[in-house]
Structure prediction request, 141 residues.
Amino acid sequence: MAPNKFTLLVLVLLFLFAILVKPANARNDYLQYDNHCQGPTLEPYMEYSQTENIGRGSSTSGYDDDRGTVGVRLRIPLTSTCSKEYRKVFNENALLRQQLEMLKMCSRYKNLELPDQFAEVREKCDGIKRKPEAAEADDKR
Prediction:
């Protein structure tokens, strides 16, 4: 295959790839974490360093310097734009997203007989039914 044909083939394949590719979107929005309201955090740490110091001149009067440190670090943000009102709205939105996702899941599995492994899903989706008017309208169609 000639170099010009190969280049043309690669360009055509890249063009087709660019046309056919779609962006990926998160499926469960409620799983995304908001780092905006971070409070004080306590984190353990451990450090170890080993260095060898060699003395000056031709003598080998060096020494080894081994250091180990273990501790706990407390981080407290000095400034924050996170208010009680923001936290309240954020928590309400997170609960709403979870409930909407649960409704979506329940509608998928409402006609299935779920075994004991899915007892939690069965329990959460128990009692979710269509309104009588909506069920009648669907039957007439």
